[in-house]
Amino acid sequence: MLAQRYKEVKNRVEKACIKAKRAPDSVRILPVSKTFGPDVLQEALDAGLRRFGENKVQEMKQKAEVFAEYPIDWVIIGYLQTNKAKEVARYASEVQSMDRLDLALALDKRLQLENRTLDVLVQVKTSPEQTKTGMSAEAVPAFLQELKAMQTLRPMGLMTVAENSDSEATVRACFAALRHLRQQCQDQTGLALPTLSMGMSGDFEWAIQEGSTEVRIGSAIFGQRDYA
Question: What InterPro entries does UniProt report for this protein, alphabetically (predicted)?
Fold first, then answer.
């Protein structure tokens, strides 16, 4: 079942790319495995998936230890506390929720001890909702310059979570704002910033229309969760 759902998502992504006049392979899928246990993750591994998004560091660590024999890339997509920097530096291959300097400094320190580097995306708040986290758009260019100076962190792009709305125009405006910000940041910092992580199970086709290069898909691949 999971393999079939993943295939269906891939087909939808390819169709959305074609509709947007983009190459079908120009958008990567990040399967979001948060809250799902080892049995479901094993099914995903059996289907050939090797890269997973997780919200909570402790959950990522537990899964990484259970599946230590697999070459898995663990991606943190949830709000990250600085006191979790040690586990992130040890187990994660990417953080998509980088949103403040103290977190970057904590990760840089731990990564130096681990002799590792980490890809990071800056999470940007493009929605007015109080529940959404992320850095203000105005602060991002200067923050990227700070990241650029840290040898262990590789800023690869931007991430956002769109407003929770049924309105296509409202949701797409969030994605368009991130795309425009990426261009501004490229011009100001000289960084390539190839990744725009935007779009989830309910809105990823709209995100692809607005230039997303990576969509974070949970329920459309793994099924409905019992909790968030």
Answer: Ala_racemase_N, PLP-binding_barrel, PyrdxlP_homeostasis
Q: What is the spatial distance between Cα 40 and Cα 99, in angstroms, rounded to a whole number?
A: 30
Cross-strand bridge partners of residue 158: 122, 196
Q: Which fold has domain 2-222?
A: TIM Barrel (3.20.20)
Within 116-215, where are the H helices?
140-148, 168-189, 204-209
C-alpha span between 33 and 30 (Å, rounded): 9
Rounded to the nearest 10°, the torsion over CA 222, 79, 141, 147 is: -100
Spans of the chain below 70 pLDDT: 226-228
Partners of 32 in the β-ladder: 53
53 forms beta bridges with 32, 75
Domain locations in the chain?
2-222
Distance CA 52, CA 33 (A): 6
160-183 pLDDT, tens digit per residue, is 999 999 999 999 999 999 999 999
